[in-house]
Design brief:
By secondary structure, this protein is mainly α. The protein is built from 26 helices and three strands. The chain has a three-stranded antiparallel beta sheet with strand order 1-2-3. The protein is globular and about 70 Å long. It starts with a strand and ends in a 5-residue tail after the last helix.
């Protein structure tokens, strides 16, 4: 329950520096029905994102040959190699353009349909993309691959925003971090599945690439069949729709059979308090309104900068160096696919560790520790790659640092960052904030995808010095400007930013229930 101070008709946010009493045992794992909710959400969100990032690696040469052969069939001449590379690059990068558009649609869809229905509707994009990419081969139209990649990018842009928003609003306060981590575990699972289906023993044989690209329909169908059994966000039902009965049903499902009537009333009282403090004029702010609101500016800038730090931290460059690093370590070219699967397992292990630690250590220690370890790994990788030709054991040090960097990213930045917008904003601004946060992330992902090949060519191993600066700067920023949100209600976290914005809430006309929940001084 959020605590505020009322003075002369105004409520002033109280500092978060004083430790509050936790709203439950922080070490408790989610019960089975909450794990079902996280799984049903993650399979259509982070899983799709991870799968569609990695799925294009295995069929690269087959798709390039398809482009060349199709062009030859149309024009009786083979296409220029540079144009083939350009079309391939468009197929890969158009995914981020679709992601940015999907992020832009997050706010309107989440507000109009609700969090759960928006997630379900989003699967129609995945099914459409699977059909478009699957028929590209029989129709001899490589342009359909580009269109399908754009559509699946929209699906992932929506899913990556809706998933943490939905989990953040449905999870009990003391399990909010763990629930988000349970959803994030599906990211490395998606990456690994995308790598596994591309193995020659599975679908990686010649001519199998249309099936590989169409596999994206399976997680969409799984979410369509599993998510309807889960409730809508109770905060959306009560605060946005004022549907008390459905909110009670959702809370009963989420709380399980051991939830008492008093606990349910306390949960609803906290939501009513938030509604009273927000006021009717503040309901469901659009992305543009959120961007212009000075009371939200500090929180918005914070999540965008932390998101930028995550995207620019250099993990994509680490992956681009995998072949070079492990080849120097003696790994045969035919075994590289299995090494890639090993990196996915490493990231999965990191997320499992983070799920265990996030409600014990908090968000800030994981972020600062993760970025600090990544910075150290960047230093060692730069040195080891520079000396790889002169010292015989340096390749093994480089290979070890790759796994260390992936572990560091997974434990901190890779999992905690997406949780912050859900915790930093109250109900009326959350969907708009996620829209801006998602568009910013996809933009930075596009920029780093376009720029880092030239950085690798021009700077070689010294390109990691740029990522060293990014990791150090983000760790410092986190230490000074990000509040610890473990065991804090949404109102308490919002009050922290309100206090730093030097703004105050104007107390609306309080009902008797809302007066009971405001601690006066």
């Amino acid at each position: 329950m959020a605590l505020v101070t009322v003075t002369h008709g105004q409520t002033q946010p109280r500092s978060l520096t004083v430790k509050e009493t936790a709203a439950g045992p922080t070490s408790k794992l989610p019960p089975r029905h909450l794990l079902l909710l996280a799984s049903a959400t993650g399979i259509g969100g982070t899983f799709q994102y991870g799968f569609n990032i990695s799925v294009m690696n295995a069929p690269t040469w087959d798709i390039k040959n398809f482009i060349n052969n199709t062009y030859c069939e149309r024009h009786s001449m083979f296409i220029d190699d540079n144009l083939v590379t350009l079309l391939w690059s468009v197929m890969v990068s158009i995914y981020t353009a679709g992601g940015a558009l999907g992020s832009f649609l997050t706010g309107p869809l989440a507000s109009k349909l609700g969090r759960k229905k928006a997630l379900l509707a989003n699967n129609s994009l995945a099914l459409l993309a699977a059909v478009i990419m699957g028929v590209s081969y029989p129709l001899r139209a490589y342009e359909l691959i580009i269109l399908g990649r754009f559509v699946i990018g929209m699906n992932c842009g929506l899913g990556l925003n809706l998933q943490p928003m939905y989990l953040g609003e449905t999870a009990p306060q003391h399990l909010r971090g763990v629930m988000s981590m349970c959803g994030m575990i599906f990211l490395p699972l998606g990456i690994m599945v995308g790598q596994v289906v591309g193995l020659p023993e599975i679908l990686g044989r010649p001519g199998g690439w249309p099936l590989i690209l169409s596999v994206t329909a399976i997680p969409a169908l799984l979410q369509i069949f599993t998510l309807p059994s889960c409730p809508e966000s109770p905060r959306f039902l009560l605060i946005d729709k004022n549907d008390v009965d459905e909110c009670r049903k959702a809370l009963k499902w989420l709380g399980g059979k051991h939830m008492t009537e008093m606990e349910m009333e306390n949960e609803m009282a906290g939501m009513r308090e938030e509604h009273a403090l927000i006021g009717d004029a503040g309901m469901e702010k659009s992305a543009l309104v959120v961007a212009r609101d000075p009371t939200l500016r500090r929180a918005l800038i914070t999540v965008i900068l932390v998101g930028a730090g995550q995207q620019l931290s250099g993990l994509d460059v680490i992956y681009s160096y995998l072949v070079y690093i492990f080849s120097a370590s003696g790994v045969a070219p035919g075994d590289m696919a299995y090494i890639a699967i090993g990196t996915g397992l490493c990231e999965l292990l990191a997320l499992l560790m983070s799920s265990y630690l996030i409600e014990r250590l908090g968000r800030k220690p994981l972020l600062i520790g993760g970025y600090s370890m990544m910075a150290l790994s960047c230093v060692i990788i730069t040195i080891s790659l520079s000396l790889q030709e002169y010292v015989h054991w340096m390749p093994f040090l480089s290979a070890s640092c790759v796994f260390a960097c992936i572990l560091s990213f997974g434990i901190g930045p890779g999992c905690v960052t997406s949780l912050l917008p859900a915790e930093f904003f109250t109900q009326e601004a959350r969907s708009g904030a996620y829209t801006l946060y998602g568009m910013s992330n996809w933009s930075f992902l596009f920029i780093i995808g376009m720029v880092f090949p030239f950085m690798v060519d021009g700077l070689g191993p010294f390109c990691f010095l740029f990522f060293l600066i990014d990791c150090v700067a983000t760790a410092i920023f986190t230490f000074f400007f990000i509040p610890e949100t473990k065991n804090r209600s949404f109102l308490e976290i919002s009050s922290y930013f309100q206090r730093h914005n030097r703004k105050v809430y104007v107390e609306p006309e309080c009902t008797e229930l809302s007066r009971v929940n405001i601690r006066r001084t």
